[in-house]
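Researcher: Please predict.
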Amino acid sequence: MHTSLRVDGANCSICFTETLEAPAHLDGVHSVDGSFEGPCIDIDHDVALETITATIRAHLHGVEMFANEIRMVPLESAPLSVPCSHSSPDGEWRCGG
């Protein structure tokens, strides 16, 4: 199965890249690719999508204001109706909506 997820709110490209590695280690995940600029993640898998999204949620955080503090919050991913097009002819990363 192929799933593309949009992950809005990611604010650190290094954390995003490290997050791509987490679902790649799950049994039943065949490949993971993503774009911080998208921001989206493409996954080929045979494992339940809920397992993948829980893994992403556990690794990727954004920030939000709470009273006078900035705090880290987990990010929710949402399936895209159009796949990410990471391998476009011009080499640009794009995500569908």
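Model: The mean pLDDT is 82.
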